[in-house]
Amino acid sequence: MIGTDLYVEQIEKDAVRFTDESHLKPLIQTASSAKYVLLGEASHGTSEFYTVRSAITKQLIEKHGFSFIAVEGDWPSCYEVNRYVKGNAPEYKNAIEALQAFNRWPSWMWANEEIVGLIDWLYTYNQKQTTEHKKVGFYGMDVYSLWESMEAIIQYLAKIQSPDVEKAKQAFACFEPFHRKAEMYGVSAALYGENCMEEVVALLQTIQQNKHAYNSDSEASLNMQINALVTANAEAYYQAMVTHDDKSWNIRDRHMVEALDSIGHYYGAEAKGIVWEHNTHIGDARATDMARQGLENVGQLSREKYGQEHIYSIGFGTHHGTVIAARSWGDPLEKMIVPKAKRGSWEDTLHQAGAFNKYIMFTEENREVFQRTIGHRAIGVVYHPEMEHLGNYVPSRLSDRYNAFIHIEETNALSPLSMQELTVT
């Protein structure tokens, strides 16, 4: 346990204890010099991860001029929230109504009470801005919304009476026999060679050629561009998912960086953005055992694309608490116990250094100490607390994976907007 003892000693020396958001000011100040600040989470169902990220996000926007938030969510659903926070969606009376756009499992990731406060704040903040381009946006970076993105393309092209709508309908018709079941399409494409790639490529080319025509509102061109990007990459993702799961992971994270880049270009060369995703996406994959599996992620790809000095990645974790998750994909959500961290893990070591909330910034002075490999907990939307010691800890070199880390000693399950199916285990 020499390594762990050294970690404890260094954490006691370097960590900053915090009890409220004002104590995070030095961390926020340091992060604010980056072009993109990546805010992680150790699970998709923890209240404090959302509330602390919200506090950091508000300060980055209000005090340091950040332009947009991009999250691990579907573009079409997030775009409805974006319309609301920018005052362009009169059909939504409040943030809760706008968040009903997240109606596909796992909806609790964004349709939760914790995010409502941030969306309300963004709406109010944007009301004070003098031009549309100064308003802060809220966007989705994920790749899953193939059918929803196709529908959005068709609806928009029909609305502006574009002749391109026929090509979009042809592409969509190719996917219709699969009844919105991604696994059906994946099997057909990967195993039987019956895919829709030709139709998707043709649609992409048409949209790219005619993008100048999609300007009926301030973000129409961006909306079309990302929905087309989702359609193309989702087709490849679902096809790869059947036979090459590692390949599908890389398709997804490359897509998210491509989407982030498109959003950044929309806001201009000087724009700065905030990314909300799981630790497994924002922490550099090269500092984990993911690298041995040939996996890349947003943390790695963004550092490679923009330069390490332009990315500031903050991981999040907890020693114990409760979380919202499910037993299997698509199952009803549950409130589950997060057990005390595994002995010798990163979370356990932070606990040994003091059973309180703290953050640590990795610097030239301490980076070498924290380059030893240590297990770091990761909880997904599917979770089995009783078995987490078998597969929920990712071997990581923390100071290579993140620029900083926030430890919440005891966390609580977030509050989904829809609680009808909630059970407690």
TrEMBL record:
SUPFAM superfamilies: EreA/ChaN-like (SSF159501). CDD domains: Ere-like. Pfam families: Erythro_esteras. InterPro entries: Emycin_Estase, Hydrolase/PRTase-associated, UCP036794_erythomycin. This is Erythromycin esterase family protein. It comes from Ectobacillus funiculus.
